[in-house]
Specification:
By secondary structure, the chain is α/β, with parallel strands linked by helices. The protein is built from 21 helices and 18 strands. The protein binds adenosine-5'-diphosphate and magnesium ion.
């Protein structure tokens, strides 16, 4: 079997998953952002070409072979599939002349090949014991050879009309080259099949031949109407439409007929093949076509809908039936009685093993389906149920992103995360520029403040010597020192202070802080420490970290002032690279509009004299100097959580003293 004829045009694939959903053989996977056809799984049905709005699937082309090799060197005959009337509805009678213009020596109907095999089909339908499956459609037998190997013995071992016609022409003419022209992609794989590759030399599709007419400026309307070359076909012309095979074999199927079934179209085909394999079908003969008649083949290239196409083919049959001389036809058929029209089919199992129930459940959980209620069975993935999708996924045949509800959930959370990160980033940028300004001002103030403190100390000493009252000078000195404290805090916020790093156990730092805080607040305050972390030693500035925790805990205590129960929870966790500290209070909470201002220096909601608005700004600076992160979540009237994350790595570049 040869099935590597369809591939993806990289630049055009927009990864919409249509082809993956449509592919009856699960033969398409997304690899490096593109829907790639897996050759060994492909059955060449061409459904992916039909559904790709971007025209991102290409089919192996024989154009160069036909026009540069065959036609210039050999007697090259075209055989045209009966659906051509649906592909060229306005001027199908000009096709023989147009093809001759391109250099084909003879142009015949493939339909005579159908006539050739009909005798054999008649025989099989009359005499078979088990359910037999027709084999003119290569996509159908490719599918069975790859995915239902147990049904290979049920395939009718007779060549398709195309191969029959190729063999007929090769037997009756001196070494011609035969080019089949039709609506079917799978024929390109069929003619290369080692079992039958003596019959046909190239396959072109109707879409391809239309392009070739255009590029050679062949206008069908301007051509003469000439007949197809003999042999002329009889009922084989009807092969392209539903029930054509039976009609050709002279068998009428009616609605009460249970021994014969005609099945067309991807989903019905899959259904019936499943049923035959399960032993649910008892009919003697099943005519299966992957498309809804060859008139709906992937390369038909027609604007008409199904019934209009059917009408065109019937119109052609009616118009041309009289051209077939019954006596001539009978003798052609008789003379071909020795022609070998048999073939065999070879199983090439590509079915993947069924995943276990546990694996299926695990896959369902991956897409947030924990119970049956979660299984929406919306069908967006191309599978009827979430379970079917999970099975395909377990077989390695479906993609994660095909589950649309799951994808939407993922997108929503990614969007929220992105939005949060963006807000944090904007906030961090704002704080960085405030920091720059603060550092500049602090540096400028530091020197004059130093001078004021120095000279007022000198004056104070002088006054003391002569035993004068120092009250006013003390005031200057105290206020100047207060200013220096603020300046120093500002430098802390602007990360201008140096760290004094040493090996520090966060657990120790916290216990020391808890002790200080409990000592100063007495039994009034309840601190619960939930310690889930290993005792990791990190390189950090212990005093500065202590200051951070004290600032945060003091804020919490102040926020819980009016609460009867003042409870503080401190939760400690870690993973390989980080330590996580959560400090949770049950205080007044923070107004939403203030959340983004908390780390800004001098932002306070406290009364003058109680708050400076520097506690969190300093803490932010210190944590950032440690390459960590600090965030605050809060719910008004419920409480506030401060999250601190510190890296475990001791390689980070601390500003050494
Ligand atoms: P200050 O405590 O001097 O006001 P901070 O920088 O420490 O300055 O805090 C800034 C503001 O953030 C506080 O005034 C308060 O409004 C708010 N805040 C900080 N922590 C909490 C908390 N745990 N609960 C409620 N509000 C808080
Ligand atoms: Mg404070």
């Amino acid at each position: 079997m040869y099935t590597g004829i369809v591939s993806t045009i990289g630049q055009k694939c927009k990864r919409c998953y249509s082809c993956i959903r449509e592919c009856p053989a699960n033969a398409i996977r997304v690899i490096d952002g593109q829907a790639v056809v897996i050759e060994e799984r492909c059955i060449s049905c061409g459904h992916c070409l039909k559904v790709c709005s971007q025209h991102a699937k290409s089919v192996e082309s024989d154009n160069i072979k036909v026009f540069d090799e065959l036609i210039p060197q050999f007697d090259t005959f075209a055989i045209v599939a009966p659906s051509f009337a649906a592909s060229f509805p306005e001027n199908y009678d000009k096709i023989p002349a147009a093809l001759k213009k391109l250099g084909f020596k003879r142009v015949s109907e493939t339909a005579f090949g159908a006539d050739l095999i009909n005798v054999k089909y008649k025989d099989i339908i009359a005499n078979n014991k088990k359910t037999m499956i027709s084999t003119p459609c290569p996509a159908v037998y490719n599918y069975i050879e790859k995915y239902f190997v147990e049904l290979v013995p049920n395939l009718v071992q007779i060549v398709s009309p195309m191969i029959a016609m190729g063999r007929y022409l090769k037997a009756n003419y001196s070494n011609p080259k035969i080019v089949f022209i039709g609506p079917c992609i799978a024929k390109k794989s069929e003619y290369r099949d080692l079992e039958v590759n003596d019959a046909i030399d190239a396959v072109l599709t109707f879409s391809e031949i239309k392009e070739i007419f255009n590029s050679n400026n062949i206008e069908l309307d301007n051509l003469d109407t000439i007949e197809f070359d003999p042999p002329h076909a009889a009922m084989g012309k009807s092969y392209a439409i539903s029930g054509g095979l039976l009609k050709t074999a002279g068998i009428e199927s009616n609605i009460l007929e249970k021994d014969l079934i005609i099945v067309e179209g991807k989903s019905k085909v899959k259904e019936i093949i499943d049923d035959i394999a399960d032993g649910k079908i008892k009919s003697k003969f099943i005519d299966i076509l992957f498309c809804e008649g060859c008139i709906n083949g992937p390369a038909i290239d027609s604007d008409l809908n199904h019934y209009a196409r059917r009408e065109k083919v019937i119109e052609f049959i009616e118009k041309n039936q009289s051209h077939t001389d019954r006596n001539v036809w009978n003798s052609e058929i008789y003379n071909s009685r020795e022609l070998d029209l048999n073939r065999i089919f070879t199983p090439e199992n590509r079915r993947r093993p069924m995943p276990s129930e546990e694996q299926i459940a695990e896959i369902l959980r991956r897409t947030n389906k924990y119970s049956e209620i979660d299984e929406l069975n919306c069908g967006a993935c191309g599978y009827d149920t979430c379970r079917e999708y999970a099975i395909a996924f377990g077989k390695g045949l479906a993609e994660d992103e095909m589950c649309l509800p799951h994808l939407i959930d993922k997108l929503e959370s990614a969007y929220t995360e992105l939005k949060n990160t963006q807000e944090q980033l904007t906030n961090a940028e704002k704080l960085a520029s405030i920091g720059q300004l603060a550092a500049g001002v602090a540096h400028e103030l530091n020197n004059p403040l130093g001078t004021i403190i120095l000279y007022s100390s000198l004056i104070r000493n002088e006054l003391q010597k002569i035993e004068k009252d120092c009250g006013d000078v003390d005031m200057i000195l105290d206020e100047a020192k207060r200013c220096r404290g603020i300046v120093s805090n500002l430098l802390n916020f602007a990360r201008e202070r140096k760290l004094n790093p040493a090996e520090v156990s966060i657990k120790n730092v916290l216990s020391e802080v808890i002790k200080i805080v409990t000592d100063t607040n007495g039994n009034d305050l309840l601190i619960e420490l939930e310690d889930n972390a290993e005792d990791i030693i990190i390189k950090a500035d212990k005093d500065q970290l202590k200051q951070v925790f004290i600032n945060i805990i003091n804020n919490a205590i102040e926020a819980m002032e009016s609460r009867d129960e003042k409870k503080l929870r401190i939760i400690l966790n870690n993973d390989d690279s980080k330590i996580f500290i959560k400090i949770i209070d049950c205080g007044c909470g923070i107004e939403e509009e203030n959340i983004n201002k908390l780390f800004t220096p001098f932002f306070t909601t406290k009364k003058i004299g109680r708050g400076t608005g520097l506690g969190l700004a300093i803490s932010y600076g210190i944590i950032k100097m440690h390459k960590g992160d600090i965030t605050i979540e809060s719910e008004l009237n419920k409480g506030t959580t401060v999250n601190i994350v510190l890296p475990v790595s001791n390689k980070y570049d601390l500003k050494l003293k």
